[in-house]
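Render this sequence as a predicted structure.
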Amino acid sequence: MSSIFSTKSTSYTLIDSLRVGDADAWRTFCELYSGLIRYWLRGLGFGPTDVEELEQDVFVFLYRRLDTFRRRARIGGFRAWLRMVTRHRAIDRIRSHKNLPAIDHSRELDELPDAATDDVDDPRRDRDERSILMSKAIELVRSEVESNTFDLFRLSFIEELPVDEIVAAKNVTPNQVYLAKSRVLTRIKRRFEDLLN
């Protein structure tokens, strides 16, 4: 996994790996972006079973059509493209079930956000997406650093314990606590920015 995340533009490095059929890259991609895809599908009103099926449908579509994604200078361009793909797969799902008896899906199609306004800034959606990506960034960094280093970070930054308490409890120096906190925060910030881009 670390080779996929070795450059600043993680999404593009990951996409390049996906395009050549790297199985590890596909596992990483699914792990990283499944939370966002599920979030978007739930936001469109789909229930748990449909979300699970549509999530798989999105990944199959991406596997077959990833070559249609074009890099752009815009930050968040890949995320916007992925959101659009997810939305279109959802619309296709609704249209394919329109002929079912006693179910009126035309209202559901009308209630989906308009594609023209889908990229308009939505502060709540942006906050939720960032939260999902931050959780993934923390999870990635946790798997990349030694457990003692992450534990010092957790105690000092997340739990906000005083350094002297951490030093006494973990039998480390104050400098080790500060270094662990700084190193982990730097890595989390880098991973988060990579995922946003």
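Summary. The mean pLDDT is 79. The CA atoms of residues 41 and 51 lie 6 Å apart.
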